[in-house]
Structure formats: structure tokens, C-alpha cells
Design brief:
By secondary structure, the protein is an alpha/beta fold. The protein has 2 domains: about 5-45 and about 365-425, Urease, subunit C, domain 1; about 50-355, Alpha-Beta Barrel (TIM Barrel), CATH 3.20.20.140. It contains 12 helices and 19 strands. Strands 1, 2, 3, 4, 5, 16, 17, 18 and 19 form a 9-stranded mixed beta sheet that branches. Strands 9-10-13-14-15 form a 5-stranded parallel beta sheet. Helix 5 links the parallel strand 11 (about 190) and strand 12 (about 200-205). The longest helix has 18 residues, at about 205-220. It is globular. Bound molecules: N-carbamoyl-L-aspartate. N-carbamoyl-L-aspartate binds near residues 90, 150 and 320. Keywords: Hydrolase, Metal-binding, Pyrimidine biosynthesis, Zinc.
Length: about 425
């Protein structure tokens, strides 16, 4: 195996030092390290973070390999500074059996660019009627611990209760896409002043908040673990705050786009801004940012949702919801939070790794720790060109925006997946 000496690098914002990687692990951290056999990576001006971990990625394989594959999504992730991603279950066929989750897990291993941890569906075919084979997926080679019908809400409270109870046996988590379907029929965007003006059917904040309120009560009642996907409203933050104060075992994520963009984007009628849950108001954005800093929202997760051109570049009403996220998440976090490196490491690496139980991830570089890390150039600015993204899809809402920060290198178990800002494999 190879060795790398990252010289003069700031580890999570601290004073510059050297990091020696050997045989897949961090061998030493300290100023003036000497390792003649090692390849030197000049870390001057760069910040080393534990490799980012995404709890919410859509890889589209099997079924929509035209939009993304495990391999192309893994490459996008590595270029975004990620060393592990959790792959959502809304593939075709749905990841609701041991066979499908093992297939995704194996494809991730073959690509070898990030660790791909499959998420299993809660219900058969995401149909919300019968529990999927949660135990078989947990016992499979993929060792699934997170289950989600993301894209759909587990709306039936009895099924949700059963799922929460079931996963307690292996300390699993139900990750809920909180959307009361009866309140969002035909919805196109956030229900508010802009939707009224544009004449588009609204997706009210209460459709999210009502499900989160119900689910924290269910999780409390059965003593199980709930994770709330893509929290998007100020009201949801208040429900979560109260639940956490009572000691409910709930964690929550916010996406980069909900931290930056508002429903005003819909005025362009450009479906690149159509997403589930929808972009909300400036007051919601402010509340989400504050909740992320405070810790009421535990993590940033991308909800990377690649879509083929024909599914996105069409009339707003017919476009699929979702936007790309993996290759821009760190830049958005840096833009929104500023260079608060410890907070960024906490919300984008350490905590998501802990929630998902991903061993060897989310650990700051220290002797003996698996060398999963990423190097960021905080001074660089880059203009997002959709054609240059590694994703097979082009639906980034940040096209031609200039964003701070650039991923210079990513290491997975001591081997570079990205060097000089380019994918290695
Ligand atoms: N977040 C999105 O807007 N889209 C997701 C699923 C979903 O949550 O609707 C997708 O899979 O495309």
C-alpha cells in the first residue's frame, strides 16, 4: 500500500501540521514529519476534514442508470469531499429486499470511490401498505440499519409505529419523508404568497410539521429512533426542539438548498428549482440556519436527486422534483456557515457517521484512524458549470453561480479518490 505525507495542512481549522498516511490509516500527525518513501501532497492553505458523510443520496441504480449510476454518483460524491454515502431506496426495483440492497452495496464496493451504505425501504414497493423485509435487509451483507420510503411518506400511523418497533431489535432507524399526502395533493411549490401570485398549487408547511409532530410522539411512545429527512420549515424546527428537550431519540437533517434558496426562485418557472419538500420562505431559511448551528438540526444531508433531462427540462407541473447536491454541498455550507470548520466537520461528517453507524468514518485524523479525509481549499472560488459535473444529470440549481471552496483531494482508506481536484479512478 502507498503512503502520503500531507504537509503544512490545517486539521479542522487548527494551526498547520503534517499528516502521514500509511497502509490505509493515519500513521502520524505532527509538525515536521519525515517520511522519504511517502508521496508529498502540499497542504499549504488547505483544511483537512474527516471525509464527508451523506445520509441522503439518490444513486438511481438499479432502474434509472440514465440519470445516475452507483459509479457516477460515487464519483460525484468523492469530488464533493465525501467518503461515505447512504443510498436511498426509491430505485426500480425498490430496495425493499435483501437482494436489491446487496446489489447496491456490491456495486458500491466495485466502484470503490466511496463507501455506499444502502438504505432499505420501510414498505414493500414504497406503497405504504405492508412492511418490507426489514430483518432480512438488516441481516444481509449490506447490514442495513436505516430504513426510509423517501420520496413517499410512511403516512399510516400504525405502519409507522410497527416499523419503529421492529428496528429496535437491531438499533435501527426509520428516516421519514415528512409529508402528509392529503395536504399536498397536486402541490407544486411552497404554499404562500408566491404560490398565490403564480397560481401554483401550494405544499403547506403544516403538511411536514404535522407528520414530524406525530412521529416524534410515536418514537417516544415505543422508545425507538426516528430520523427526519430534509427539514424545511421554521415550524418543524420548533417541533424538533420540543421533542429533543423531552429526550425523544430523534435526529434531523437539512439540505444545502433549503439553507440557501427560497420559494422566490419559482418566479422563474425553471423546474430546476422544483424539489420536495419545496423551497420555503426567507424566514424558514433563517430558522433552519440557526437550528443547524444550535444543533436542533443535527446534520446537513444533500438529498442529491439526479434527474434525466426529459424529466426536468419540461413544463414546471410535469417536472420531477429534486436537485443535485453532492458536488456543491461543502461550498454551500461554507457560504452559509463561514469557515466554522469544527461545526462543518460535526454536521457533515462526525454526526452523520455516528447516526448511520458507519465505522471508520467521521473521525478526525489521529494515529491509527482509517484515513478517510478530504482537503478543502477555502480561498478558492469556482463557478459551477453543469457540463463539468461528474453526475450523469445536470439539474443543479447553482449553475453559473460562483461559490467559495474547492475540494482538492479526498482519501478513502488511505488511497486518493480525488487529487488536484480531479477524480483519480
Ligand atoms: N427530493 C426530491 O425532490 N426528490 C427525490 C424524492 C422526493 O423526496 O420526492 C427524488 O428521488 O428525486
Amino acid at each position: 500500500m502507498s503512503s502520503y505525507l500531507i504537509s503544512n495542512v490545517s486539521v479542522v481549522g487548527a494551526a498547520p501540521t503534517d499528516v502521514l498516511i500509511r497502509d490505509g490509516v493515519v500513521a502520524a500527525v505532527g509538525a515536521g514529519l519525515d517520511a522519504p518513501e511517502a508521496t508529498v501532497v502540499d497542504g499549504t492553505g488547505l483544511v483537512a476534514l474527516p471525509g464527508l458523510v451523506d445520509l441522503h443520496t439518490h444513486l438511481r441504480e438499479p432502474g434509472r442508470e440514465d440519470a445516475e449510476t452507483v459509479e457516477s454518483g460515487s464519483r460525484a460524491a468523492a469530488l464533493g469531499g465525501y467518503t461515505a454515502v447512504c443510498a436511498m431506496a426509491n430505485t426500480s426495483p425498490v430496495a425493499d429486499t435483501a437482494g436489491v440492497v446487496e446489489q447496491v452495496w456490491r456495486l458500491g464496493r466495485e466502484a470503490g470511490l466511496v463507501d455506499v451504505q444502502p438504505i432499505g425501504a420501510v414498505t414493500v414497493g414504497l406503497a405504504g401498505e405492508h412492511l418490507a423485509e426489514l430483518g432480512a435487509m438488516a441481516d444481509s451483507a449490506a447490514r442495513v440499519r436505516i430504513f426510509s420510503d423517501d420520496g413517499h411518506c410512511v403516512a399510516d400511523p400504525r405502519l409507522m409505529r410497527r416499523a419503529l418497533e421492529y428496528v429496535k431489535a437491531f438499533d435501527g432507524i426509520i428516516a421519514q419523508h415528512a409529508e402528509e399526502p392529503r395536504l399536498t395533493e397536486g402541490a407544486q411549490m411552497h404554499e404562500g404568497e408566491v404560490s398565490t401570485r403564480l397560481g401554483l398549487t401550494g405544499w403547506p408547511a403544516v403538511a411536514e410539521e404535522a407528520i414530524i409532530a406525530r412521529d416524534v410522539l410515536l418514537a417516544e411512545h415505543v422508545g425507538s429512533r426516528l430520523h427526519v429527512c430534509h427539514v424545511s420549515t421554521a415550524g418543524s424546527v420548533e417541533v424538533l426542539r420540543q421533542a429533543k428537550a423531552r429526550g425523544v431519540r430523534v435526529t434531523a437533517e437539512v439540505t444545502p438548498h433549503h439553507l440557501l434558496l427560497t420559494d422566490a426562485r419559482a418566479e422563474t418557472y425553471d423546474p430546476v428549482y422544483k424539489v420536495n419538500p419545496p423551497l420555503r420562505t426567507a424566514a424558514d431559511v433563517a430558522a433552519l440556519r440557526a437550528a443547524l448551528v444550535e444543533g436542533v438540526i443535527d446534520i446537513v444531508a444533500t438529498d442529491h436527486a439526479p434527474h434525466a433531462v426529459e424529466d426536468k427540462e419540461c413544463e414546471w407541473a410535469y417536472a420531477r422534483p429534486g436537485m443535485l447536491g453532492l458536488e456543491t454541498a461543502l461550498s454551500i455550507a461554507l457560504d452559509v456557515l463561514g469557515p466554522q470548520w469544527d461545526l462543518i466537520a460535526e454536521r457533515m461528517s462526525r454526526t452523520p457517521a455516528r447516526i448511520a453507524g458507519l465505522e471508520g468514518h467521521g473521525l478526525d485524523p489521529a494515529p491509527g484512524v482509517p484515513a478517510n479525509l478530504t482537503l478543502v481549499d477555502p480561498a478558492a472560488r469556482r463557478t459551477i458549470e453543469p457540463a463539468e459535473l461528474a453526475s450523469r444529470s445536470r439539474n443543479t440549481p447553482y449553475a453559473r453561480m460562483t461559490l467559495p471552496g474547492r475540494i482538492v483531494a479526498t482519501f478513502l482508506r488511505g488511497e486518493p479518490t480525488v487529487l488536484d481536484g480531479k477524480a483519480v479512478l
